[in-house]
């Protein structure tokens, strides 16, 4: 009886521990709070995908969520033009360079570096899977230290046609072909950005133009 009781207690303890491991750990925001950035400069993204237009499309999606989080975001097209004039039109060179130089050039508090890992549509006759995968890194323009990092993946696969038989298969094939021919990456990028920036514990703390500025320390 004693052995059975011990076993039951052990199982109960394991179940309790298993139930506790649900939420991802909070990121460390000590350096972020110390630096307290108020403005963000988004530099051209590194493109590791096969779509040469991915960086241009992506840049159109990132400013809004950062601004809505309470930060001043330098206009991305202006930034790209100024950097090109200054010989900084290679994203790989910019990402490997010193963020303090960019801080001096633009007067920004922090630099946002983004790597596009995937931006593709994979066709499989009856379905096409559209994937956007992004890495985000925010660095201080004063010290060069990494203040924040995040990673997001978003996948879209059209629902199969409700009807069955040959007509349903044809409809699925047509839908897959249309998605492959003209995949819409923008909604996926917008979803990824919003989740990366806004999620409690892993997103960005509220900036100075947000009502929660310096009041969300329990969440970050």
Question: How would you describe the overall organization of this protein?
Answer:
- The protein is α/β, with parallel strands linked by helices and 220 residues long.
- It has a domain at 25-117 and 132-155 and 185-198: Rossmann fold (3-Layer(aba) Sandwich).
- The chain is 43% helix and 21% strand.
- It contains 8 helices and 6 strands.
- The protein is globular.
Instruction: Kindly state the percentage of residues in helix.
Output: 40-55%
Main pleated-sheet profile: 6 strands, mixed
Look up the CATH topology of the domain at 25-117 and 132-155 and 185-198: Rossmann fold
- H and E order: HHEEHEHHHEEEHH
Whole-number radius of gyration? Answer: 23 Å
CATH class of the domain at 25-117 and 132-155 and 185-198: Alpha Beta
Multimeric state: single chain
The CATH level-2 architecture of the domain at 25-117 and 132-155 and 185-198 is identified as 3-Layer(aba) Sandwich
Unreliable residue stretches: 1-23, 166-174, 176-182
Number of strands: 6
How much of the sequence lies in strands comes to 15-25%
Shape category: globular
Mean pLDDT: 83
CATH superfamily of the domain at 25-117 and 132-155 and 185-198: ABC-type transport auxiliary lipoprotein component
- Terminal residue distance: 48 Å
């Amino acid at each position: 009886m004693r052995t059975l009781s011990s076993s039951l207690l052990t199982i109960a303890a394991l179940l309790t521990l298993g139930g506790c491991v649900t939420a991802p750990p909070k990121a460390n925001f000590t350096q972020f709070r110390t630096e307290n950035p108020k403005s963000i400069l988004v530099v051209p993204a590194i493109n590791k995908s096969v779509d040469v237009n991915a960086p241009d499309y992506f840049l159109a999606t990132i400013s809004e969520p950062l601004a809505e989080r309470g930060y001043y975001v330098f206009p991305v097209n202006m930034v790209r033009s100024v950097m090109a004039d200054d010989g900084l039109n290679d994203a790989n060179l910019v990402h490997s360079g010193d963020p303090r130089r960019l801080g001096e050039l633009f007067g920004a508090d922090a630099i946002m570096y983004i790597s596009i890992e995937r931006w593709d549509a994979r066709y499989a006759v009856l379905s096409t899977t559209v994937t956007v995968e992004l890495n985000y890194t925010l660095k201080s323009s004063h010290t060069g230290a990494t203040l924040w990092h995040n990673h997001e993946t978003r996948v879209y696969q059209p629902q199969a046609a409700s009807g069955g038989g040959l007509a349903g298969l044809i409809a699925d094939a047509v839908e897959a072909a249309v998605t492959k021919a003209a995949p819409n990456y923008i909604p996926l990028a917008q979803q990824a950005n919003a989740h990366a920036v806004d999620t409690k514990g892993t997103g960005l703390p509220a900036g100075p133009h947000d009502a929660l500025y310096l009041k969300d320390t329990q969440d970050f």
